[in-house]
Design brief:
With 408 residues, the protein is of the alpha+beta class. It has twelve helices and eleven strands.
């Protein structure tokens, strides 16, 4: 009898315990939902005055209007910014999150670069990691970080062995400071207190140079060749400049040669104006701020659109025309310094841009000294897609003809 009674009481306790747990979970869920609704309502009210697209749904925002394909989405963003160019900024709702698009040089300068309240955009993380894409992202990131970590470790060990050899052997060959690579400088640089960069800080810099710089530079060279093939009169001017610098020789380009290639540099800059390697990029706000007289609340995302920024007719008349002469010194006077940000970096961060420019001029000069480029593709046939890097989804079809021969 006692066993039956204990069994009955135990079942009732389990039932009540289950009901209490369900009730508690329901209460927590309801409370979180109410908090989310209250937060959304407050954010919506605070940013009500910011210019926006029509057709947003509660909680969903404009998500139902946005194209899922990268190519279609990019074309959609181009259309929106062109239609609303008369406005200083444009707001979209991505679910409950406000997303503000900037394509005005004055707002880009005053509100973003140099401000501590702006952080690089990151992906909703705990949720993202639960999906297959999140797992793949984590796996790929681990491969990248391990690769750069090994590069740093190997170089640090080599430098250590070299220093130990110098201290133990007076005849050990001295280290030539003039030949130090960028990684060597990072491993030796110190701040005012004598502290060196951490391996994590060095790894971030190495990641940038080894991967981001590689992809953006390749895209820029690709599209520069396409534009030169589409505008033979511009290519003829480049050809004339190359002959003045190199003549008919096959010698490799030197740093002095690259400095003389002024018109080719204007070609690269104009190519990056029309087709910026980073067509748009995001930043998160960790504080409230004001943009063009409108309040943008903490937690909002800001999207900077270099593709649209570079087509501001105030600074680039007839913006769709390929005209390298825009970047002649006499034609650049008076232009806003933030009207042109091809690599998602302002003019204050110019080291990477100068390095990329030297790379592009070196490779382009090598190609153009040996080949004439032809292209019959129309721009609308490129199928531009704005992913991390601007890419022609249909590919670029060009013909290379060897100079002074009929051979293709």
């Amino acid at each position: 009898m006692l066993a039956l009674w204990l069994l009955s009481v135990g079942q009732k306790l389990l039932l009540w315990g289950g009901l209490c747990a369900v009730s508690l979970a329901g209460a927590i869920l309801t409370l979180n939902l109410l908090r989310m609704v209250a937060s959304y309502a407050w954010t919506w009210q605070q940013m009500r005055a910011v210019p926006t697209l029509e057709g947003a749904y509660p909680f969903l925002g404009h998500a139902m209007m946005l194209k899922p394909d990268a190519r279609d989405f990019f074309q959609q963003m181009i259309q929106y910014t062109e239609e609303h160019r008369h406005l200083p900024l444009l707001k979209l709702w991505l679910g409950p999150i406000p997303v503000v698009f900037l394509y005005n040089a004055e707002n880009v300068e005053k509100q973003l670069w140099g401000r501590t309240l702006v952080l690089k955009a990151t992906m909703i993380p705990s949720m993202f990691k639960q999906f297959i894409d999140g797992w793949e992202h984590k796996r790929s990131l681990k491969i990248l970080h391990n690769f750069t970590k090994n590069v740093i470790t190997e170089r640090a060990n080599e430098m250590k062995r070299h220093e130990e050899g110098r201290s133990n052997d007076k005849d050990f060959p001295p280290h030539n400071n003039k030949r130090r690579g960028f990684l060597d400088l990072l491993l030796n640089v110190t701040d005012d207190q004598g502290n060196k960069l951490s391996y994590e800080e060095i790894r971030e810099e190495v990641d940038t140079f080894m991967f981001e710089g590689h992809d953006t530079t390749a895209a820029a060279i690709n599209l520069s060749l396409y534009l030169l093939g589409s505008y033979p009169e511009v290519q003829q001017k480049v050809d004339h400049e190359l002959e003045e610098v190199f003549g008919r020789s096959d010698r490799p380009a030197t740093l002095d040669d690259l400095k003389k290639l002024k018109y080719l540099e204007c070609v690269v800059k104009e190519s990056l104006r029309l087709f910026p390697s980073v067509p748009f990029f995001a930043r998160n706000l960790n504080e409230d701020c004001e943009v063009a007289g409108y309040r943008i609340v903490k937690g909002s995302q800001v999207i900077i659109m270099p593709y649209a920024l570079h087509r501001d007719p105030r600074y680039f008349p007839n913006p769709e025309e390929f005209k390298p002469e825009r970047f002649f010194p006499e034609n650049s006077k008076g232009r806003h310094s933030y009207a042109y940000v091809p690599f998602s970096a302002g003019p204050r961060n110019c080291i990477g841009q100068k390095f990329a420019m030297m790379e592009e001029k070196t490779i382009l000069s090598c190609i153009l000294r040996h080949f004439w480029v032809e292209s019959n593709q129309k721009r609308e046939e490129l199928g531009l897609a704005g992913e991390l890097i601007l890419r022609p989804s249909n590919g670029i079809w060009i013909k290379l003809k060897r100079r002074n021969t009929n051979e293709s």
